[in-house]
Amino acid sequence: MNTATMTRGFALPSARTVMNLAIGGFAGLGFWELFSAVPTAWFAEYPLEPPELVKSLFAHQLGITLSTPVAKLLHFVTGFLFYPLGYWLLTRWVKSFGMPADGWIWGVITYFIALAFFAPLAGQHFLLNDVPRLSLMSLVGHAIYGWLAAYVFEALEARRS
Question: Which residues cross the membrane (predicted)?
Answer without folding.
Answer: 21-44, 73-91, 103-122, 134-153
